[in-house]
Amino acid sequence: MEDVLRPLSTDNDGLIESVKDPTSAEGMVFYHADEGKPLATPWQVAITRAILLNEHKLPEGYLLDCACGSGIQIAAYSTIIKRPVIGIELNPQRAKASAVNLTTVFTERGDSSVKNLRSSLFIIGDGRDGKAAIDKIKKSNNLDDVKIGLLHLDPARPRNSRSHSLDEMKPRLDEVFLGWKEYLSESENGPAILLDLSPRLSYQQRLEVEQIVEDTWPLINKTWTWISRGKGRVDRLALWLGSIAKKDTPRRFIRVSPDLKNQPFIFEGGIQLSEGEDVPISSTRMPKRGEYITVLDSALVECGLAQYWLESLKPNPLCHWVDSTGRRPQIHHEAKLPSIPKGSEFLIQASGRIVEIFHQDLNLETVDQFVEKILTHDIKRVTIRSSLNPEHQPKIQGSFDRQLSRRHGKRDAFLIQHPSTSMSMLCVIE
Length: 430
Known about the structure:
VC0802-like, Rossmann fold, 7-stranded mixed beta sheet, elongated, alpha/beta, 10-stranded mixed beta sheet
């Protein structure tokens, strides 16, 4: 196999791993190699990122992904930003899959110009070696000079690991920066760099990433960006740098809609990462009947922007953080939340008024006692929003469903445990 692949002349011979991307409105089928599917960026995330990136004025030059994997992200950049791309991948089969996938995106999205596709290349090689790659681009495309307008890096990290060190990233950030710095075009705010990092990085590790960046580009603008597709989980964590970052936008949260036709919700602001993690401090405040409990999207809380989003609501609710670190972050507030702006409804997992407080654990032995009190509040359905034994939860939820279905209640409710006590609160959704 040649070490430089052109999308238009690369076929899918030998590529046996292919799958339809469920997040693609076009129903695109992408090729992968060597079990690369779990590592690939979902198309909906890739295109969302490309559209947001296109709002910035990039320096001149190619769009480069120096560890491109299946090439889905770089293909999204190309189709939105309308520039030729360079993908570099050490694994020959993945490099081939990337070239085929770029042609698939071009075809499925009905692009009418092949100019950028003809100029795009996929190189089988070391993504850290900028000089070798530039020489191959010059020779392949008959150019005297090559500039890179965007450097995208999504380094590989250990699979099936809840945590890892920065040194386990392949290729390493500092080695990539050293190999490519002289070839990056710059605007007045520096080069355009997007680091696609593990969402499992700790706060301290994120600070270490910033320091590696600072060692090469002192005082460069930085915008940390969290992307979530729901279920309170951060799916992608990235650091946008230089000409694609804003000094007054240190953090950005993007909630991708489950409806492929809807625009994502974006909230920006907060403080610089170096000034603190900025996750609210949980209190030991006890609940009171009549007040409200709201369960927020834990991904929004994790990125340090939840309290700023709450402050943006009008009128601003007076909230007490009772749990800010778990899967179901709780705020307690005396008045009902104001109307939530359209597009951000997904940030509220549940919200309701406390009508009953139980001073006992919920389990298989006590479920009937809970049901007895729940029935006095005209409840037709109650959803458990507490962490229970995984074996017991479906049985307890099933008991609630069966017993409540025999009555003719009219209100929906949820049951949630106080994080620092054994108390549970029954909250009616109004």
